[in-house]
Amino acid sequence: MSLIMFWGNGKMETTKVMKYYFYLRRKHMNNSDMTFYDAIRKRGSYRQEFLAEAVPEEVLLRIMEAGCRAPSGYNFQTTSFLVVTNPDLLIKLADIAPSPATNTAPAMIIPLSSKKKSPKTGLSFEIEDYAAAVENILLAITAEGYAAVWMDGAVNLEDRRERINKLLHVPDDRYVRAIIPLGRPEKEVTQRKKKPLEERVKWLR
To answer: What are φ and ψ of residue 138, in 5° steps?
Structure first.
């Protein structure tokens, strides 16, 4: 299974990202003045409605590359992704986990994890891999001028994970971690207030 799979025309299509991505990368000129630190400060968990505007595939590819370049324990790269843009599947996902965001999102990213232990240490880092990849994705979404929300808890309620697995034909060796609905926000995106730096950071000089 490749790291990224796109649900587009009603079936799962293994996307050869690099074939198309480097072409887009050569021609892409990012007109945004947003810096890395701007994206960190502007990223917010957007739970409201999205505009009825598709997210271009070249934007999705850049976002997914950001996720795939996240650090990974032992470089096992245990996180993979389903990118859903098929309208019928989006409706069915929203039925499983209804919210203003899922009900209106033009695209959703479904992170998947696989369990893999180091034969030397017995350690497994799929949780850390997944979290690092999602943070990269959220920052990339913000940098591209879109908004999203990381819906992890919603997947754990009732039998939602099993229903999503069945709907998207997730392989037995992987499991759904979250739903990330994304799109152009209808309302302002705000980041919740954070504790002062001095309250959370201690310098040992």
So the answer is: -65, -40
Q: Which amino acid is at 51?
A: L
Residues contacting 104, CB < 8 A, separation 6+: 49, 50, 52, 183, 186
Q: Is 67 exposed, middle or buried (0-12, 13-18, 19+ CB in 10 A)?
A: buried
The helix or strand, by DSSP H or E, that contains position 142, with its residue range, turns out to be helix 126-143
Dump the DSSP string for 150-189: -BSHHHHSTTHHHHHHHHHT--TT-EE--BEEEE-BSS--
* pLDDT at position 36: 93
Element (H, E) at 111: strand 107-113
Q: For the purposes of burial, counting CB atoms within 10 Å of the CB of 203, is it exposed (0-12), middle (13-18) or buried (19 or more)?
A: exposed
Residue numbers in the chain where pLDDT is lower than 50: 1-2, 9-12, 23, 26-31
pLDDT score for 19: 53
For residues 96 and 1, what is the distance between their CA atoms, to the nearest angstrom? Answer: 25
- Rounded to the nearest 5 percent, the helix, strand and coil shares of the chain are 40, 15, 40
Pairing of strands 79-84, 4-7: parallel
